[in-house]
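Hi support team,

I'm opening this ticket because the web form for multi-chain structure prediction keeps timing out on my end. I have pasted the exact lines I submitted so you can reproduce it. The total is 597 residues across two entries, so I didn't expect it to be a heavy job. Is there a limit I'm missing, or should I split the entries? Thanks in advance, R.K.
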Amino acid sequence: MGTTGNAITAERLVKCYGTKRALDGLDLAVPSGAVYGLLGPNGAGKTTAVRILTTLLRMDDGRAEVGGVDVTREPRRVRQRIGLTGQEAAVDEILSGRQNLRMFGRLFHLPKADAWRRADELLERFGLGEAADEQVRGYSGGMRRRLDLAASMILAPEVLFLDEPTTGLDPRGRSEVWESVRRLSDGGTTILLTTHYLDEADQLSDRIAVIDRGRNLTEDTPAGLKRTVGGDHVEIVVRAEVDLAEAAALVGRIADGHEPQVDAKALRVQAPVADGVGALGEVVRGIEQVGIGVEDVGLRRPTLDEVFLQLTGRPVEVEEEGVPA
Amino acid sequence: MSITVSEARERRVYWAVADCLTIVRTELVHLVKEPSVIAWQLGFPIVSVLLFVYVFGSAMDVGSGSDYKTYAMPGMLAMTMAFGFMNTAYAVAIGKEKGVVDRFRSMPMAPSAVVTGRGVSDVLHAALDLVVLATIALVIGWRSDGGLLATLAAFGLLLWLRFSLIWVGVYLGLLVKNQEAAGNLFAIAFPFGMISSVFTPPHLMPDWLGTIALWNPVSSTATAIRDLFGNPVAAGDTWVESNAILMAAVWPVVVTAIFLPLAVRRYQGLRR
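Hello R.K., no limit was hit. The queue was backed up. Here is the completed structure from your submission:
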């Protein structure tokens, strides 16, 4: 481990395909033990960055260290320290889950007995014990990804790279994978996660770097990123238009100094507040005192969609199938 | 760590072999779990031999005076080997598309094993294909009159051709975009296998086509094994046909010399 305490350090990474600069001076500093989200639209350079850091791709310029080892100079040693789960579940369809993990164990150069034992351990840990001897072909998307994750964890790597680990999964599969990622992180593994699902970065990451066109846009905690677009908002939707003014006055009292926004058409009043949950309580009590008819009361928190829109001036694109960035 | 350079090299060679065998073992498990794959891959040669022998056979006169099936059977074996590069290309394309190749490349295993493992298992697979096809040929009434050694030599030449085509398959598999595109390689495989002496002697074809067929490596193997099996050769008297056994040994060397470096370059080029 370097003196910086960073599991991944990348400085001014450049990668060109013809005239297109997939990476254009990207910097990364991922603290040891963190779950670090790399967020950006398709074509932002997320996958290119992961491929360079996992030694699959040569960089044109810049410097990178993973687990304290230089990626360009000692790719072999880097490979002993990392696990990679790519966009496709890179497992053998015909083999069973157990046979897959045994094979990967052998290819990671574990002695046979160790490879066998490790396969059993990982199957249990990733909740695949019951399906261990079934062909992977019959696995659900979530099971495949978990097997894929298990295969990445055979050597208990210092750093795990997850390139869009839940792309193409149904909600259940996603939550299964999220659960696994959280547990790996609790075990101390540093995780670099790329995603274009904003809620995924929000749910899993300690820190998030937003990138676009191969460059850093910003880097912060999920909460910090949301603060940049403005904090929480309280919102009241009234039943009848006559109550709108009353509601606006109520919200105005609670919002610290901000004019409440009134949307007469939607019968909605909203204003930014400092202490979201506290303000919500006050609003609810206020409604009871004033006695207005209310359709809905809520606390609206800004999403990373808004963060992204603000940073890039355009919304996150809709997901496309299998487009490597 | 105190590992000398030669020790490190020995260890590298050890793992290159060990990792290759791990992948080969996996491929063998595939065959055990899904033997129907063989049936599918052999479907085309079997159907075409039945077609040629029983449907067109009565109209086929290759000029040797003997039964057409004794001419067509060795041709079918050579054609199956020729088409084999498609299986390699297809497997490589799937591995690339599904990220398996990337996973292997991100692991501390021997990088060469990805290719050598593929190659060894494909040759084993081809040997199994030959056993199945030879059995069918025997049932239909084909015989080898060449004696044990010559017969074994003939099968050796068939596998030798298949071996050289591994590199063509790996190269093309890495070249194509995805597995569908790999399936389209049939457009190359078909003329490569058919414009040859597999089902008809080249001297019965139009001149220009006959010349191509004459110099097709598949023809040399087909003619050579007919010779070794003691089956009617029905070949013309050109140099390349008179020296078919020599050419059946030399062609695969030429193919390997061209395509092995191309395949290696392409594989290493994945990092660009």
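A quick check on our side: The CA atoms of residues 9 and 29 of chain A lie 5 Å apart. Let us know if the file doesn't open in your viewer.
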